[in-house]
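I hope you will forgive my troubling you with a question about protein structure. I set the record out below, with my sincere thanks for your time.
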Amino acid sequence: MTYLIPAMRLWLVTLLVCVIGYSLLVFVFAQTFVPFRANGSLITVNGRTIGSELIAQNFTSARYFWPRPSAAKFDGMHAAGSNLSPTSEKLTERAAETVARYGATPANPLPADLVAASGGGLDPHISVAGALYQVQRIARSRNIPAATVRRLIDDRAVVPGGPFAPDPIVNVLQLNLALDRLKP
């Protein structure tokens, strides 16, 4: 019994400092210095929230850039990889459907990121090569010059991780919003 009271005090102090104090400190810091990121990087158009920069959406119209496949079916509540083996028949079927959807051929192969889901299944970015692969379809369906679509890609390409990162990427939602802002 002589150790119970000091142990309870230590537990209470630890709870106050590590759980409540630390959480409050992180919350205040995030809301002060990076509120857009801290609140989910939500994108609002005309007062309506249409998505997040951080979570992929399933665009299927020929007028838009298509994202990577999603093992989570584009549902943020189920973010996870598929855990399917590279030899999985289900994975092979999904890849074949994706290749057929894009109309890829051996002479015009599909960039790997457009066939493979990301680890979490919700990556909102595609490679610049993946975006460029879709230019002709989008230009044709919107009846705009392919050079205009390429310029949108170039303007929004970023290199994550600085100059030593492998390839530039683009955010699919940001690209599609830019397409919608183009004059018809």
